[in-house]
């Protein structure tokens, strides 16, 4: 018996070694062309004005929009390609403002999906594996028009408040200050002493900190301290109820390693049912005053509400996910299913999801700046694909299609202070453009009708975009998928930030 067990162990070890040594597919590269383009007779979508400029002529030279005119013109340009835009709609490239490149294999299975679905810029929120060195190299290669992937306009190079985190927050700020394209991600577990020390130092050094609102800290105080954005739709629900202080005290004691009892934690159902208008309005007013952004990632709450639904779990987009990630997602969904089994808990998850939508809409109507983000590579949040779903969620929340589109185009440009280059279809701006077959102001689902993408001075037709998806599906399946999974797992064991 021992002999067979030893053989099995040796066989398994050899299999892992073979998969670890199995070469990764070469990352996709950007097109390299000296063509310029004129899109003739196209309808330009102006989301900020909630209008369409009909029958426009858009001249793209290099990576910029050289000229826009309502009258036909023909540039003196021997390299120009004419594109028929009649009856089609032009929007800026999309942004995902809460994305996770997650692992070192992002060029093989994550980045191409963003580009294939029109996401040309991201704010990357770090993850459980430290891939800072890779991300800096990716950022350079993408800007140099080599690697195919979305621009990393900003990324979190540090996480404070995760499990086992005991970092010196001043040193964290000092490290982040060395790269203006990075910021500090705030996680839920940071306590007030470290949080406000970090905020003070970050504000003095001009370092951005953004992320979760800390469980043990009033988000009003966090907004006043300068946190740039709050993530996830539980923000208002967990704050705006009579049990919020008790909930914060529970987490303060828990994170301080004090003895706590589960009964000390307020019921999540009671917190939702006890929603308090005055507390909600107070937080909204403070966020508006401080220009604190809100990135609700409603697709994650939708997943929690639908984790029981096998049709939802059998998403055909799983073809783009390596086996290890699919197993992690399946295990998480099983956990959510168990969580929802007690009486009333499934209803709670559904009510939490719908209440979150309602409060996002109300906060936006009151002036809170909303950003579209997906938490991609969290369960059932697919790179690129889920950004379009999030836009649909924002419309469910009460935003108009134009306002939802703003949250994924011009508002991110304002957030990063790059409105001179991004966010609108205007002469002089970077030509990140999606040519759609249908009008997204009539139906936000029309952002999915991408016929061509313009990115870094190159044109990607529908066949190019489909080829990117095929490349990812191929990498995520079969022996390639298992080889990716082994590489991800070993990196996770070596460099787990949590």
Automatic annotation (TrEMBL):
Source organism superkingdom: Bacteria
GO MF: hydrolase activity, acting on carbon-nitrogen (but not peptide) bonds
Keyword list, A-Z:
Hydrolase
Q: Which InterPro entries match?
A: Amidohydro-rel, Metal-dep_hydrolase_composite, Metal_Hydrolase, Metallo-dep_Hydrolase
Species the sequence originates in: Marinoscillum furvescens DSM 4134
Q: Give start and end of each Amidohydrolase-related domain.
A: 360-457
Q: Does the keyword Isomerase apply?
A: no
Supply the name of the protein: Amidohydrolase family protein
Which Pfam families does this chain map to?
Amidohydro_1 (PF01979)
Keyword Hydrolase in annotation: yes
Do you know which SUPFAM superfamilies this protein is assigned to? Composite domain of metallo-dependent hydrolases (SSF51338), Metallo-dependent hydrolases (SSF51556)
């Amino acid at each position: 018996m021992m002999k067979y067990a030893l053989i099995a162990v040796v066989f398994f070890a050899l299999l892992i070694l073979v998969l670890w040594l199995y070469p990764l597919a070469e990352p996709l590269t950007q097109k390299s062309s000296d063509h310029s383009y004129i899109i003739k007779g196209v309808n330009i979508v102006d989301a900020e004005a909630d209008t369409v400029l009909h029958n426009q002529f858009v001249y793209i030279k290099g990576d910029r929009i050289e000229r826009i005119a309502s009258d036909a013109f023909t540039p003196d340009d021997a390299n120009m390609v004419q594109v028929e835009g009649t009856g089609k709609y032009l929007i800026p490239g999309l942004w995902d403002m809460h994305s996770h490149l997650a692992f070192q294999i992002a060029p093989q299975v994550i980045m191409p999906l963003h580009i294939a679905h029109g996401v040309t810029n991201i704010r990357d929120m770090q993850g459980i594996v430290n891939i800072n060195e890779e991300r800096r190299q990716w950022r350079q290669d993408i800007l140099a028009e080599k690697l195919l992937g979305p621009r990393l306009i900003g990324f979190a190079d540090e996480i404070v408040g995760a499990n086992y985190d005991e970092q010196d927050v001043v040193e964290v700020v000092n490290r982040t200050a060395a790269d203006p394209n990075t910021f500090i991600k705030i996680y839920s577990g940071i306590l007030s002493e470290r949080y406000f020390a970090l905020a003070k130092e970050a504000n003095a050094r001009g370092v951005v900190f953004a992320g979760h609102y800390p469980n043990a800290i009033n988000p009003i105080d966090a907004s006043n301290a300068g946190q740039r954005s709050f993530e996830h739709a539980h923000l208002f629900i967990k704050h705006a109820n009579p049990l919020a202080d008790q909930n914060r005290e529970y987490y303060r004691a828990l994170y301080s390693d004090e003895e706590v009892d589960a009964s000390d934690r307020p019921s999540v159902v009671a917190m939702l049912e006890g929603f308090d208008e005055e507390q909600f309005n107070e937080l909204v007013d403070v966020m508006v005053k401080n220009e604190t952004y809100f990135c609700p990632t409603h697709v994650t709450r939708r997943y929690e509400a639908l984790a029981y639904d096998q049709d939802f779990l059998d998403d055909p987009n799983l073809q783009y996910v390596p086996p290890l990630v699919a197993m992690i997602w399946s295990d998480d969904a099983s956990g959510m299913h168990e969580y929802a089994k007690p009486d009333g808990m499934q209803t709670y998850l559904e009510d939490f999801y719908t209440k979150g939508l309602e409060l996002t809409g109300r906060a936006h109507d009151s002036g809170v700046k909303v950003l579209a983000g997906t938490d991609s590579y969290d369960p059932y949040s697919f790179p690129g694909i889920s950004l379009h779903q999030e836009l649909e969620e924002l419309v469910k929340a009460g935003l108009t299609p134009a306002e939802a589109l703003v949250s994924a185009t011009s508002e991110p440009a304002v957030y990063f202070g790059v409105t001179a280059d991004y966010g609108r279809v205007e002469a002089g701006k970077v030509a990140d453009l999606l040519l759609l077959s249908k009008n997204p102001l009539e139906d936000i689902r029309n952002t999915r009708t991408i016929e061509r993408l313009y990115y870094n001075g190159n044109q990607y037709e529908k066949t190019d975009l489909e080829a990117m998806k095929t490349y990812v599906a191929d990498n995520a399946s079969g022996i390639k998928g298992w080889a990716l999974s082994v590489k991800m797992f070993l990196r996770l064991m070596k460099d787990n930030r949590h």
